[in-house]
Write a structure and sequence with these properties.
Helices cover 34% and strands 22% of the residues. It contains 17 helices and 23 strands.
Length: 608
């Protein structure tokens, strides 16, 4: 279906609908690709306004409506992905894709006597509005097309796409080809694989080995890396996505600094920028590593570089920032990024099954908290009008419209030269407006300092002005994660229907990391861990179950059900100890330890 323009826009001329027929393609059928399966999973689950994508294509002056529809028809015939549907029975997810040889699509024409003062912004709002409503995967043409005209003269094409057939890179390719078709140019032969052929490559023995290697790579990160990057007292609000405003940096200073830093370090600009991003994210989060998703990474191979389909599978970068200088981090980043790129093709269903299994074993919930999408190398790296350049600003920060943010920090890099052009969406619970602005400005300051010389990693606050998260002494570093025993206690208390609970950090219960028996271990009254040097700390939960029949396993299951929406700093205890009644001084860990234990057990399916 095509969506009308936003309701607050008045059109003096009623809209009309054109039906455009296409023919000349080849009818095909085959399994879906891994990228399609990944996005279909989201399409069936998520709010359509979050998962559908949109773009705006300006139309040059003098182009007729017929020329626009002819170009759109040519794109549909040229790219199998645009002729693809995903038939499936009710209640089941698609497993096959069907490519039509012929068919029709509609174009809604909105004619105007004149466009608003900000015509590009208006076109953007029309395209964004068309994202509402779930695409019917089994039958709907995967593009919702609105043509904005002035006195019958085309000005913009506003589009919403099903994410099952296109991603940001595919939209950029289509936009580029649309412009060339309107200019009368002949498009080159297709060099990248259409989706049906890509699925065959993925299902080959080599493709399956690649997928298995990717799953093993991801599991290492999910099992050992931080489960949330921004674990801090003001962390994510329970169970909700936040609405974040777009903050855009346009900086010639940043472009010059990035080029200078690349020359001085001898590394590509993309590597230097990624290192700077990871360094600043980890610094702000107070972490010794940065885990960031890199969605555009899986188009580095020629067979998918210009394929009009969705390759939306994250590369997951886990970069240890524990080095003395930024130059050392840049050198480390090169190999880490290549490793992440190599492991960005996988069976998404098995991936999420693995994540569920590993996080259950670890007593955690993995958060896709940080996303960095560098599309600056694409042939037409524009995702709608919001990515257009506006002059040559020396250093400019501008605020744009809000949108739901299913992550904590999302960045798109549209251009690196002659100006650095980045849009950032930062969760407002973590970043006040001035902090978000300071983060992007701090990124430029870091690049400028790096262009001048090597930067000590312990000087990032001084160099960038970005300060690390403040947690307080009650937070513990356990199992590679920042954990708040108080948050765990509150969540566990809710999970066991208000029974008295005490949570404390302790050395290993059955011996310590250094081989001692842990008999000297004590715990402070504030719940922080202390004891034998070298002991690996863990969380122990004491529960006064009274006359109930609660077991450690039941307590753990109830807690795990709440953890995904429990807020920041919640990790399941390694050990549950059940007693009858709480001690007279329930705030003291030693008082709980002196009570008679009724039952105890681990909260993990496996030690990690």
């Amino acid at each position: 279906m095509n969506s009308p323009a936003p309701e607050d826009t008045v059109h003096p001329i009623p809209p009309r609908t054109l039906t455009v027929a296409y023919t000349g393609g080849e009818e095909r059928r085959g399994p879906i690709t891994m990228g399609q399966a990944n996005m279909i999973r989201c399409i069936l689950r998520d709010d359509p306004t979050h998962i559908n994508i949109h773009d705006v294509w300006p139309v040059p002056g003098g182009v007729t409506v017929e020329a626009v529809t002819d170009a759109l028809r040519a794109l549909a015939v040229r790219h199998e992905g645009l002729r693809t549907t995903f038939p499936h029975p009710p209640g089941a997810a698609p497993v096959d894709q069907v490519v039509a040889a012929e068919g029709t699509f509609t174009v809604t024409v909105l004619d105007h006597t004149e466009l608003p003062d900000d015509p590009a912004g208006y076109a953007e709002s029309v395209a964004r509005a068309a994202r509402a409503g779930r695409f019917a995967l089994g039958r709907e043409f995967p593009m919702r097309i609105t043509l904005l005209t002035v006195a019958g003269q085309p000005a913009y094409v506003a589009l919403a796409f099903s994410h099952a057939v296109a991603d940001g890179s595919a939209m950029a390719i289509l936009r580029e080809e649309f412009t060339e078709l309107l200019a009368g140019k002949e498009l080159p032969d297709l060099a990248s694989l259409p989706p049906v052929d890509l699925a065959a490559v993925e299902a080959s023995p080599a493709g399956l080995r690649k997928s298995e290697a990717s799953l093993r790579y991801w599991e290492r990160i999910i099992r050992t890396g931080p489960q949330e990057m921004f674990a801090e007292p003001r962390g994510r609000r329970p169970g909700t996505d936040e609405e974040a405003r777009q903050l855009t940096l346009r900086s010639r200073r940043g472009g010059r600094a990035l080029a200078g830093a690349a020359r001085r370090t001898g590394h590509p600009e993309a590597t230097v920028l990624m290192a700077a991003w990871c360094a600043l994210v980890a610094h702000r989060a107070g972490q010794d590593s940065c885990v960031t998703a890199v969605p555009s990474a899986n188009r580095f191979h020629a067979r998918v570089a210009r394929s009009v389909t969705t390759t939306s599978q994250d590369a997951l970068l886990h970069l240890d920032v524990r080095v003395e200088t930024f130059d050392a981090l840049v050198a480390r980043t090169w190999g880490a990024v290549l490793n992440a790129y190599r492991h960005s093709q996988f069976d998404s269903v098995r991936l999420w099954e693995m994540i569920g299994r590993v996080t259950a074993e670890r007593g955690s919930h993995f958060g896709r908290d940080v996303v960095f999408n560098d599309v600056s190398a694409l042939p037409a790296p524009l995702l709608g009008t919001e990515a257009e350049d506006r002059g040559g600003a020396e250093h400019e920060l501008t605020w744009g419209p809000p949108q739901a943010l299913p992550t904590r920090l999302l960045a798109f890099t549209y251009r690196t030269a002659p100006q650095l052009h980045i849009s950032l969406w930062a969760a407002p619970s973590l970043f006040a407006p001035e902090e978000a602005e300071g983060f992007l400005s701090g990124l430029v300051l870091l690049l400028e300092a790096t262009a001048a010389g090597d930067v000590p990693m312990d000087a990032l606050t001084e160099v960038t002005g970005v300060r690390p998260a403040e947690r307080g002494p009650d937070w513990l570093r356990l199992d590679g994660c920042w954990v708040s025993p108080d948050a765990v206690r509150e969540t566990l208390g809710r999970a066991v229907d208000g029974l008295p609970v005490h949570v404390t950090g302790e050395p290993e219960p059955y011996g310590t990391a250094d081989g001692t028996d842990g008999t000297e271990a004590t715990a402070d009254t504030d719940g922080t861990a202390s004891g034998t040097p070298g002991a690996e700390p863990h969380l122990t939960a004491y529960i006064a179950r009274g006359n109930t029949l609660l077991t450690p396993e039941e307590a753990h299951r109830a807690l795990m059900a709440l953890i995904p929406a429990a807020g920041s700093g919640v990790l399941a205890p390694r050990r549950y100890v059940l007693v009858t009644d709480p001690p007279a001084d329930p705030d003291r860990s030693d008082a709980w330890r002196r009570l008679k234990t009724i039952e105890e057990g681990t909260g993990r399916g496996r030690q990690v």
